[in-house]
Design goal:
homodimer; mainly alpha; Tetracycline Repressor, domain 2; 11 helices; about 70% helix; about 0% strand; DNA-binding
DNA sequence: CGATGCATACCGACTGGTCGGTCTGGCGTC
DNA sequence: GACGCCAGACCGACCAGTCGGTATGCATCG
């Protein structure tokens, strides 16, 4: 176990875990080292500073979540709206276990560092909005397919879905209970269904 | 100026301002003192510790926001659904100015302290869910008046609205731009309109 | 009325612990 | 034998909290 040469990855994984639970500022370098089973020497061998690690951790997060969502089953349905709804279902289904396990690293960090660490904030933003952007093609396809020409854009709905999720995580942290988060995701799903189902939104209505 | 005897209030006001911008952990006691134009001695005369101040600041926040929303104009409309939609409009209209000015103190703090300070977390939760609860009567009245019997509860929609707002604030912090936040509030409003307008949700549909 | 005493409000130098970051030395591997 | 990788003692800045002190009411009594 704990082979040499993988300390860097283990530090990054540890950082994700610890920062997601404690937050960024409250996380000490030694907490991450302890979680990774590594010493400070190793930490500062791989990273110039704590902030440097944070940047790397966000990059690592983007890479991990990118793969995770790319391979998730929600892309299967043939219908684009079904894919979108399957995405929402999938997001709901992974709200499971410990808070740190389903919560978003970059959303958590953004709150703490948006004023003080512009570079880090931009990296967090790239993660959130990059992920949101992956939803746009399906939203746009669904709009075309259903003949809808609304006063909102695919991009704004994609961003809104991320807002709902981020907000749901906050409520979950406030209560210590996943239920309230799932509930909000249900509302998001209902919203999307209504957006595409409502006769008032259809081009072809009388 | 800066009469004696109001240091405590000035410290609380300063705490709201500084914590909303920097976050809780990154805020030093001396930052709050400087903002309040008061010294450390005064701080620790009024508060046992930084955590003690945090608790008092949340209580102060609950009191301030309680009065602010109670006196806001959105209660004017006679129709309960109109009141609810006016609330959403109002929330959108106050997303203005500096990020710290429209952002939520307790949402920010929750993220940082939910694991480490249970008492503080409960106080934050009380603020969020207490505010959400003020929306329930109007939601319920609107449901009755429009003859809607949906599969969601007034409480859950009230909580969802808070989730959207909290999430919108995160996106605003990530981009440094209010626009994304307002956009999400627009989606929330559209959702509520659809919920009450959709024939699929009506009791009296064929 | 002034003096005396006491409580509350406030000040700011200081302390003691904490934590990011450094440095020296060692171990394995090519 | 040099170089990447790591260990952990150590340093120094920083900061929550302390402590001895001063200032300002506000009673009560002679």
């Amino acid at each position: 176990m704990a082979a040499r040469h993988d300390s860097k990855t283990r530090l990054l994984d540890a950082a994700l875990k610890v920062v997601r639970t404690r937050g960024y500022n409250a996380t000490r370098v030694e907490d991450i080292c302890a979680e990774a089973g590594v010493t400070k020497g190793s930490f500062f061998h791989h990273f110039k500073s704590k902030d440097d690690l944070a940047l790397a951790a966000v990059a690592h997060w983007i890479e991990m979540t990118g793969g995770f969502f790319a391979e998730a089953p929600y892309h299967a349905p043939a219908d684009p709206l079904d894919r979108l709804l399957a995405y929402v279902d999938f997001r709901k289904s992974i709200i499971e276990g410990d808070i740190a396990e389903f919560t978003c690293l970059v959303g958590t960090m953004t709150q703490e560092i948006h004023e003080s660490h512009p570079a880090l904030r931009d990296a967090c933003a790239a993660s959130i909005f990059g992920h949101a952007a992956t939803l746009e093609p399906d939203i746009e396809a669904a709009m075309r397919q259903r003949g809808i020409a609304p006063d909102w854009t695919p991009a704004s709905l994609a961003r809104h879905s991320q807002a709902v999720l981020q907000g749901a995580f906050i409520l979950a942290k406030a209560t210590g209970d996943r239920t309230v988060a799932r509930e909000s995701v249900d509302h998001l799903k209902r919203y999307i269904e209504l957006l595409f189902a409502s006769p008032f939104a259809r081009k072809d209505r009388p």
